[in-house]
Amino acid sequence: xxxxxxxxxxxxxxxxxxxxxxxxxxxxxxxxxxxxxxxxxxxxxxxxxxxxxxxxxxxxxxxxxxxxxxxxxxxxxxxxxxxxxxxxxxxxxxxxxxxxxxxxxxxxxxxxxxxxxxxxxxxxxxxxxxxxxxxxxxxxx
Length: 141
Hints:
Blueprint: E1 24-30, H1 33-43, E2 47-51, E3 55-61, E4 64-70, E5 85-89, H2 93-103, E6 112-114, E7 119-125, E8 131-137
Parallel strand pairs: 1-4, 5-8
Antiparallel strand pairs: 2-3, 3-4, 6-7, 7-8
């Protein structure tokens, strides 16, 4: 690298940016993107916030988003074993449970209570097997 000046900054000279995070997006990878989109729109009622063609980003609330990616184009590959769970905290988990039952979603559990976590919850699966937990905090939690 003759003739080029090299900056030798140490980690103690570099500070973390303090200007915040604009969005939080969890990306999940799908073989059938339109089917996944229908689930997140029609069952969960999420609205498309950013359409990147083969990547669809849905606003959950606040800065929280979920991204649905066509696995043929994304940075990761679709995998049969899912190691990610999307958790949604809602005001009325019983109403959401009734809705999920009426929609016949896959992998719908029984309603359960966790005293240790202070929640009432259920789980279901999206069309390609990602687990979604829907929960309400119990009083005092």
